[in-house]
Description:
The chain is an alpha/beta fold. It folds into seven domains: about 5-75, Winged helix-like DNA-binding domain superfamily/Winged helix DNA-binding domain (Arc Repressor Mutant, subunit A); about 85-180, Arc Repressor Mutant, subunit A (Orthogonal Bundle), CATH 1.10.10; about 185-280, PTS-regulatory domain, PRD, CATH 1.10.1790; about 285-390, PTS-regulatory domain, PRD (Orthogonal Bundle), CATH 1.10.1790; about 395-480, 3-Layer(aba) Sandwich (Rossmann fold); about 495-535, no CATH class; about 545-690, Mannitol-specific EII, Chain A. The chain has 29 helices and 15 strands. A hairpin with a 2-residue loop joins β12 and β13. α1 (about 5-10) packs across α3 (about 30-50) and α7 (about 155-165) packs across α10 (about 210-225). It is elongated. The relative contact order is 0.06.
Amino acid sequence: MNKRTVSIINELNKIEKNISLSDLAEQFEVSQRTIRNDLSVINEILRENQLPELELRGGGQICRTEKFSGILSLVSDKDYYAYKLSKQERKKIASTMLINSSEYITLSNIADNLFVSRATIINDLDDIKEYIRGGNLEVISHPNKGLRVEGKESDKRLFLMKQECSQESSNDTKNVADKYIGIQAGEKITIQKIVGEQEHFHKCFLTDDSFQKILLYLEIMVNRNQQGAYMEVRRHTDNSKYLMAQDILKYISQYCRIDTTEDEVQFLSEMLLLARYIRQKEPKKESVKIQLITRQFIECISEDLAINLNSDYDFFENLSNHLGAVFSEYPAFYPDNAVIKEVLEDNKEIRNVVENNLDMLRRYVGREITEAEVDYITVHVCAAVERKKNREISFRVIVACQGEVGTSQLLKEKLKKHFNFRIIDIVSSHEAKNIEEGSADFIISTVPIEGCPLECVVVSPMLNDEDYIRVGNKIDMLRNSHHLSTKIEENELTAKGLMDQIAPVIEEYIPSEIPGLMRELGKVVRKYFSHSTESKTEIFAPYLHHLVTENHIMLDIECKDWKEAVKKSGEILLKEGYIEARYIEAMINNIEVNGPYVVLSKGFAVPHEGLEKGTIKMGMSLIRLKQPVPFGAEEMDPVEFVCCLSAVDHKTHLKAFFNLVNLLRKDTFKQQLRMCKSSKEMARVIEEYEYRLEE
């Protein structure tokens, strides 16, 4: 413990004084990161003596209890917490400090943190430089600034991993080193949870040793990203672990509030490729099945809330991914989250609706769903409700980002997609201090902003569900202060709204041309409206009419029972090389074992199987039965249409599947399918209706 740490303790014992990280950093003329390290030392003392620890809250405010004063008696001894490190240990810790620092570090700073004299560090310096050089890195000296390390980001991270994994290091060494490359305890738990979820989702289960190494790397990555250090440009190569790496980093970026790049995904995929895995039986639950259950769950939630959430693609994708983890044999661990507790307190009605619809989830998962799991499902629903509600309100908003232009544009497009406010400007976080009062209704920033005259909502650059709720709450507050209605405007400028306005005009003047003309106009209008909002994944994901083409449709097929109907629908894909013969038998067996959950809508079934049961490439086929047959789905029987789905991964088919479910909610759609006299006509009806769907 150094003098600064003792001084911080004395400052924090002034109960009447509110103190933040920035206040202490300014007072002691050090970085906020240094203050965080000092607070970690203080918390360790508190923890060892069963005293309540310090907490960091919004804006970097440091919160302590009345019992904090008890620490004063513990630090009176000058030798308390003094580590007696060997030269070898000093070398390793000093190397960790230098490599992980984004700034120059002085010899005095190193000495202060290692509780030795400056002269001792000078004597160690040559050994430290040589040690770092062994990791393909170089120590650079500056006469007025100190020392810093130059080299590839990948080499720095691998060096830090080696430090932590070293069997030679004492516990004291590791404890001290952890202070410089560690992250918040809550973030560690979150990372562990995310990796565990994605193991189940991708059916790739790491050995214990590989699991711990991947966790360690991700902790280092988060720590480095939070400092603004990102992976260098890497050559993109496709490998079997790329999608798993992509999904892991997608959720880490959301919950740990960092930006991740394509190069970060590539490097993690390479690490996952080199990791060791254990062999496990194939899980019973498949991604397509989970997506079907998710759609049914959303429909029930929408009906009970009297809010149509069926057209929210992000809600469908996020909730189905989340339920993939819930539908495991054992409940996942969820860390406490103050924001989530606040959301649940304000949305008790929504949670009650979720609880009332849990039976369909319980039937599928085969166990009770924990309170924590219900809480997180509720948050997904709350975020969807906020997105739905707040697309209807228009305010002037400024976006502030600490990152590069690409990050700013990505955040802008995500906000435009889900909210109807006008983004009048994009500024850097340091420029936000100069914004004039009244120039906008509020500001959305990726970092806290001090000195800005506008109210600020801090969000992650990736916009997670909690962020949607934060922005929604701000809009609610502004709406209430302006006495604005939440009613959807009838003339809202959307692709669907515009087509609805055009249709009566065409019907009046050229009724004979309605089908073809509306189809072509729909293509143009939809393309125009979707240009700025569709994500990269959505652009390349096929739509329903891309898959259910004329040659994949057969009409008036005779079948004696549901098994034959499934077989006939599958044979279309079999003949064209989309599936193997065993896939058809697997679909039938799936329904026999799990019941007729594949019946999505009255008279319409979507049989399918898992990704490793004989799929070759993604495809869909559709048959209309001459005489409907029962599938055992009670009020949904008998089934008239059977649509076979062959999925090759967990998300490429999502857009087509999502649109199909929304089309089935339209009674006129199935009526039109019944009236079709040819496969060509049915393909045209599907295309026409799909283009009419609201984005």
